[in-house]
Amino acid sequence: MSHHIVEVKNLRFAYPDGTCALKDISFRITHGESVAVVGENGAGKSTLLLHLNGYLMSGNGNIRIGDYPLTKETLKEVRRTVGMVFQDPDDQLFMPTVYDDVAFGPLNLSLPPEEVDIRVNNALSTVGALHLKSRPPYRLSGGEKRAVSIATVLAMSPDILVMDEPTSNLDPRARRKLIELLKTFKHTKIIATHDLDMVMDLCERTIVIHKGQVMSDGPTAEIFTNQELLAESHLEKPLRMQGCPVCGNK
Amino acid sequence: MSRIKTAFLDLGYMDTLAGMDTPVHRLDPRAKLLTTLIFIITVISFGKYEMSALIPFFLYPAVMISLGNLPFYYLLRKLLIVAPFAVMIGIFNPLIDREILMHIGPLYMSGGWISFCSIMLKFTLTVGSVLILIASTGFNAVCMALEKMGVPRIFAVQLLFLYRYIFVLIDEASRMANARSLRSFDGKGKGVKVFGYLLGHLLLRTVDRAQRIHLAMLCRGFDGEIKLNRRLEAGIREVTFTIAWSAFFIAMRFYNIPLIAGSFITELIL
Amino acid sequence: MHMADALISPAVGGTVWAASAGLIAYCSKKVRDDIDDRKIPLMGVAGAFIFAAQMINFTIPGTGSSGHLGGAMILSILLGPYAAFLTMASILTVQALLFADGGLLALGCNIFNLGFLPCFIAYPFIYRPIVGDKPSQNRILLGAIIAAITGLQMGAFGVVLETLFSGLSELPFKTFVLLMQPIHLAIGIVEGVVTAAVVSFVWKSRPEILEKTANTAPVNGFSGKFVLTALLAAAVITGGVLSWFASSNPDGLEWAVFHTTGKEELETPNRNIYSLLGKIQEKTAFLPDYGFRVSEDVKTDSSEPESIVNPGTSVSGLVGGVVILALAAFIGFALKKKNGSR
């Protein structure tokens, strides 16, 4: 099952205007792991994610996705393996109806129409959005949009799911539903987020990024109890681990 | 601001209408599109002094509105909103063409008034038929029909994209316009310069958004060509619909039924 | 200044429609052949941007027309003429379909007036030469304003010509021109200023966006050859459409004969059978008179203007019209009831 592995070695990246976004990042994520990438605004999380599907490529350092090193030649295979869910569903859902949107990826894989149909139905029922099939994306609620975004990626049958702020802009109930949904996935997951409570629910491992560098990489429980580390990386303990302001209990 | 919101709700409402399930809605979009085109061409082909021969054409909108369960007054209001241009150009006819062409007892009607009425009838019919087409079919389905009927894929996709992001951008623009009006007083802050900055910002955001969409497309294997998995099915119903209506329109183009009926009735009475 | 279906004749509408359709096909090919597939989403959202921008209130006092905020010019500068033309065409299509602004047949005219003229005439021949390869604040301002004004003036003149050639409006050429051009001069100036403001804002904050287009915009490759090809294609298509029309429609054939021979007498047969509103028909062809209708023409057209109408026929026409209208409404209601009760 080596093709579920994500390996990043000595990755550096600077934007054309000279901003150094990533300085020497290395980690290795193995099959079935669920890993959170946390850090303050501008720490380099998004830049890192953009490297994982080859949108950004830098000459420095290298990335392996499963059996392939990430290069121009393997790009297509890598993009099929790594499913990327964007922060703003309006960027991800660009087709006229939910069905068309979920079918977009499979069609690009040149699958036969019947197979596309099966995949779309499966992906939509996995996220519980089959009833939205013929609706246009702009008429969905925030939670529905998010679910459909995930379905668009699932329809590609990726091995690795990469998500950028999956719980942003969701109401508490939709957020909870999403977390429950993600729990059921067997994929290798990489989630960049500020929602540390979700991290506690979903990810056994956390990578803290600060100013383009890996500050810490370890079990979530350990990292969230390290007060110093959190303060230095502009983070806070998850709310659930803080004392209750009403009753004063821990 | 109200204008933006109205437009937004309006678009949404048309979409809701198109989402209904009636015999008219269930027809293949191509049949409706083709019929609408034939309707418009036959209506337009009438001469400038033609009034009575246009009347039978109202049967088509009447049938479509009732079978399609469409809101008559709403469509009428939409029609009136766009009327000014046709009225503006047409209203010169009565002023210039003053020859008396018709009189009923003491009432005289100049050629100008006749041609003006003819323009307004044509306007009502053509605009009405387009509104009915969208309200009973939906914009996206019309685009799909266009694509199947040979419109270049890239243009059809452009229409779909445009329609998709109108909702997002109108929302974004209205938020910016709100922010502007909350901080401008006595008309200050609504000048061209601020307007330019505002639009400039919106444009930059738009360009960034385009980049993100492109990225999302690439992530799902986009290779420069958008594919659509959509099978339209035109059966006997569609063919009958199109042919029957077209035959009716063309027949009405050559036989002035109101005149024949009128002669018959007046002969009976007189 | 959207043309409406009710104001144009099928001949004018069809011809311009064919020309616009040919341009859309040509530009689609051009854009598809472009290696830069980033343009596909960019065109979509840029079109939506223009749409949204037109809705932020900014009316020009006294005219009520604020509709087309230099859309075509901003798009040309951002995307280059081919993609801008397609985007403009898509915007106008949406307006025609959803807001009933302009009609389906008039869409061709609108695309030509508001898309082709600014994107393929005003942008390459006015804006580009003025701004050149090294844009500056003043050049952008000057180029945008002059190009926007010229584009709109041409567009307004297009409306005048299309309306007059259709022959449905009685407005004399001169009056119409004097009516349209000054209004659109005012609109053009405002548009130009706004376009300039937006473009120079983008140029100052993110110059690379504009540079990208400047480099890919085929300004030099844009030549008389293209215009010639487009016009030729339009002519062939129009010919095809018209001959189809003529062959499938005897009245249309008659019309074609009438126009080629220029003899108006040829058009009366088969009408008088039903004495349609008497001799008024003499003023009407299958397609209304193809040419400038100046008031003198009207007089010569109908030689005996006074006693041409038999009151009996007019009354019949009216009575019949009312009856048929009532019948149409009745059928409508009946169907609705049936539909509702199910």
Brief sketch in words of this structure:
The complex is a heterotrimer of chains A (250), B (270) and C (342). With 270 residues, chain B is mainly alpha-helical. Chain B contains 13 helices and two strands; from the N terminus they run αααααααββαααααα.
What does this structure look like?
Chain A is globular and about 55 Å long. With 250 residues, chain A is an alpha/beta fold. Chain A has a 6-stranded mixed β-sheet with strand order 6-7-8-3-9-10, sandwiched between helices. In chain A, strands 2-1-4-5 form a 4-stranded antiparallel β-sheet, covered by helices on one side. In chain A, β9 (205-210) and β10 (213-219) form a beta hairpin. Helix content of chain A is 36%, strand content 23%. Chain A has helices spanning 45-52, 75-81, 89-92, 98-108, 113-126, 142-154, 172-184, 196-202, 220-225, 227-232, and strands at 6-14, 20-29, 34-38, 62-65, 68-69, 82-85, 160-164, 188-192, 205-210, 213-219. Chain B is mainly alpha-helical. Helix content of chain B is 72%, strand content 3%. Chain B contains 13 helices and 2 strands; from the N terminus they run αααααααββαααααα. Chain B has helices spanning 2-18, 23-26, 29-44, 59-67, 72-81, 84-90, 92-96, 111-137, 139-148, 153-182, 192-219, 236-254, 257-269, and strands spanning 100-104, 107-110. Chain B has a two-stranded antiparallel sheet. In chain B, α1 (2-18) runs antiparallel to α10 (153-182) and α4 (59-67) runs parallel beside α8. The longest helix of chain B is centred in the middle third of the chain and has 30 residues, at 153-182. Chain C has 12 helices and no strands. Mean pLDDT of chain C is 68; it is low at 59-67, 216-225 and 235-312. The chains are: A alpha/beta (250), B mainly alpha (270), C mainly alpha (342). Chains in contact: A-B, B-C. At the B-C interface, α1, α3, α4, α5 and α6 of B face α1, α2, α4, α7 and α12 of C.
